[in-house]
Amino acid sequence: MKPVHTAVIGCGAISDIYLSNMINRFPTLEVTACCATHLENAKRKAAQYGILPSTTDDILADPDIELVVVLTPAPTHYELIKQALLAGKHVYTEKPLAAELWQARELIALAKEKGLRLGAAPETFMGSALQTARKALDDGLIGEVTSFHVVVNRDLTLLASLFKFLRMPYGGICYDFGVYFLTALIALLGPVDQVYAKVGNHARIRKNSIPSSPEFGEDFVYDNEAQVNAVLTLKNGITGSFSLNGDSTLKEVPLFRIMGTKGILDLNDANQFGGSIRYLPGGQRDPNWQDLEMISPLSGNSRGIGPADMARCIREGGTHLASMEMACHVLDVMEKILKSGSTNLPQDTETSCVRPAAFDSWRELLPKEAETDLP
Could you give the count of Cα atoms lying within 13 Å of 203 in the half-sphere of its Cβ? Predict the structure, then answer.
């Protein structure tokens, strides 16, 4: 298969794993250029990975570039994706698809009008752990699903001291971290119908807690959501809990479980591609969790597998898994969580999506020598 010529817009910290994997691991892609707000940043990144430094305008004007991967902060996604689609490029973006639902809907309509592909992270649901959980559910290992629990802790004072983009609009715990668990949940169980949530922020004014930072000890403003406690009802009738706490001093220790009539699945951190998937059979007096065998080697940080899958579909047809419809629905759910928190009323989602197929085509995306050698 002829690789798809690809360019990257955005050279921040997340770009390293994307560039490394897309260049060295996924032969469906041929990365040729990158750009950044400051050309010097693009030049450094380009020299590191043996590609060309460029500008956004030059990338969009280059007829050889077929796919653009956007790795910039959330507030910039709408304009950049729109420009790329208007220039005739397929687009894959870091999460979320856009900052607001109306923007995502407009981008989807534009992609369909132009006959172009649009997709978005997170793609962690394509990793070995969550695909193993997907197979267990499809095989009926835990019987009929009855509920689910997602509980996540973070220290946002520490993280927002370290990463200033978390202080920007749409940098809150739901949009930046809960998005992984919502995507995983929807990929495993299907779309959400209604949400009812409480949303809070323990401290709007916080102190920089990084001793090595020039701002150490200084106050900064954090206006985003830091706590989310929600009840989610899926369109299939299953109801479960979704709780995010960014005001914790604990190291992240996510709890992600799906309960069924025949047992329980204990899932991995949805921000990771790998990790253990444990099964607890029902009817046991003494709990005896069993580790399930992974069904693929995609256990390391496999970011870039989403664009690689899209590239395969560009050449061969089919539906890429990290779809614009699912990314739009996840954005819809997050928007409704915040709206429910501000109104103290349940909110129905406005969108839906198809539960993505099982990721059985991973072998087509990796050279044989790389199948067990992902980072």
Answer: 14
Q: Which CATH number fits domain 4-124+302-322+351-370: 3.40.50.720, 3.30.2320.80, 1.10.10.10, 3.40.50.10490?
A: 3.40.50.720
Question: What are 23's two structure tokens?
Answer: 């260049």
- Where along the chain do its domains lie? 4-124+302-322+351-370, 126-291
pLDDT along the chain (375 residues), means of 10: 97 96 96 95 96 97 98 96 98 97 98 98 98 98 98 94 92 96 98 98 94 94 97 98 93 93 97 96 85 95 97 97 98 98 98 96 75 45
**Same CATH fold, 126-291 and 4-124+302-322+351-370?**
no
Phi and psi angles of residue 141, each rounded to the nearest 5 degrees, phi first: -60, -40
The pLDDT tens digits for 187-213 are 999 999 999 999 999 999 999 999 999
- Contact call for residues 5 and 314 (beta carbons, < 8 A): no
**Phi and psi of 17, rounded to 5°?**
-70, -35
CA dihedral sign of residues 315, 321, 326, 330: negative
Q: Is 203 exposed, middle or buried (0-12, 13-18, 19+ CB in 10 A)?
A: exposed
Tokens at 92, concatenated: 């894959």
Kindly give the interhelix angle for 101-114 and 324-343, rounded to the nearest 10 degrees: 160
Closest by CA position to 328, among listed 120, 148, 130:
120
Strand ranges, E, within 44-189? 52-54, 67-70, 90-93, 118-120, 145-153
What distance lies between CA 337 and its chain's CA centroid?
17
CA dihedral (203, 204, 205, 209) in degrees, to 10, reads 60
DSSP state of 175: I
- Expressed in angstroms, the distance from the first to the final Cα of the chain is 24
- What is the reported pTM? 0.95
Tens of pLDDT along 91-106? 999 999 999 999 999 9
Burial 287-319 (b: 16+ CB within 10 A, else e): eeeeebebbbbbbbbbbbbbbbbbbbbbeeeee
DSSP 8-state assignment for residue 323: B
Domain 126-291 in CATH 3.30.360.10? The answer is yes
Tokens of 303: 């970011």
